Amino acid sequence: MSYAQTLPFIILERIVDYVLEFYPLPGLASSSKCDLCIAEWALPGVCKHWRKVSLTHLYKSVSWNTIKNIRGGCKTSRFLSNKFMNAIRNEGAGVVKTFTVACRRDMILDGSYVKGLGMLPSTCKVLPGVSILDLSILSSSDETDIDLDESKDNILSFCAAIRRMFPNVSKLKITGSTRRIQPKDDELLDTITCRLVNPDIPAASAESYVKFSRSFSSLQYLNGSISGHNSPVIELARRHASSLEFLAIRTAIPEAISRICYRSSGEGLVYSRLKVFSIFPGGSEIHFDTKYKFQEVRHVPFPVLCTVNSISPYPFAGDVVFRGNTKTLSKLTVLLTRHNLDMFLTNGVLRRERLMALDVAEYMYFGPATGTMPISDMLRAALPAESTMKMFKFDAVHPIRFESVWPSLETIGARMESLRIRSLACTLEQVISLVSVLPLIKTLEFECVSTPSLMGTDRLHDGCEGACRLASHPAEPGDKPKHVRFMETHLDCICNDMAVAEVLYMQHYPLSLSLKNFYVGTRGSNLMLASRMVVLMSLLCPRIGLYDLCGQPAYDSLGQRLEQSRLESTRQRASHA
Q1: Would you list the domain boundaries of the chain?
Q2: Cut 0.70: pTM above it
């Protein structure tokens, strides 16, 4: 058995990322992770396990970039190398799920792109495992106008070639060179989408949406988050209510959303398969005056849905009224204010038995009734005693006292796997108490507060931020981030100054064997304070692999290093005794 077979998969993934980032092939940018890197990195003399793991990681999403190609089949074929296609076919055919094709509009219209695909070896012309195709149609600066009528055969050939190469595509995403598809591309897109299924075209024009509505008998994915054309998107949603699984719309007008929810007769529409429903701000439809007062949107009806499990009504700071069947709701992203808190409590939207994930952002209302709601009321709404919630994220405007959170968390802590309250102010003792009632916790985020037990006696490095004599050398371009260098250079200094560590270890180890992701913030980005908290919690929770200091993430196995350091110091004290 080779040594690589004993390494965890995540370690191998990081090694692959590191190699591609710092040791690219000649002629490629240092940060490039393009298809040519994957194609030419043959991994000679490496065991089969390492090759399989690395290719599996790299082939999760594959991209063909033909933007720089000169028009002509031979140039296209040379860039889309046979070696690359053979590698995908042999090593990654069952792994590749998403495939991105970036091609110029003129290459489709004059047939050069299809010629390039035709020059590939026969074994590389079909990728049956791809289910999501991202087609990026780009315009070139020297592009000449090409008559679509004369190029219709080439367009049909392009559609047929793509369909043959990706026979099992279930979702198609089409984007343009700008955020919005150009009007001259409407007919091109219409021809393409008529022959491919489930288009995701967030930037299409209103005319294109009307054409698409005639082309599909059962639409599953409707994304109108960029276009801003409400009427055609709404008509599509109404027509395909029984088949839609994803619906996104850009609007803040209650009447527009009412048209999504109800028929003209007043009868509610039933979206029997809808799983994700997102509403985005409507640009000019949401107004801010000179005093930054939000123009409230009141009494927005929620669609009569049957299987929705993810809702994101982000733009609403007024009274968002949910109506209909939301018993299957499992994820909710919402803005909570004093003005809609009572509605959430009254309608029981946050008390659904299957609500597993909740992402809450507190909206600061700038109107006459300034101020924020009591955090205890908001948590009472978000974390009821009968909740089955596993993931809870809350972004508050002001600091949150630990005492206001503790009763709710203590009640439902047995089921919580991810708890991220960025402004939750916790002392070291409170964090230990919190983790002790969260037996399944995997991700924890809070803001640490300084206490004598956490600060230690050595105050020389409180503000140095890694620029003191302990640093091996000044920061240079390409070095590790500041917080990582600070942790590495000050680790011994931190450990030697924390006499409380041995006592806490004897009392609480192991505090948690499930905690893996640890996010620590401070007021003023105090790296020393955050580092001390990370060191102590890594000593008590040995499986922490990702820690975040003041918004800067890093990967390290601090728990194992600290455990070895603790054992060594114990042996030394025993020998002296």
Answers
A1: 1-58, 61-188, 447-576
A2: no
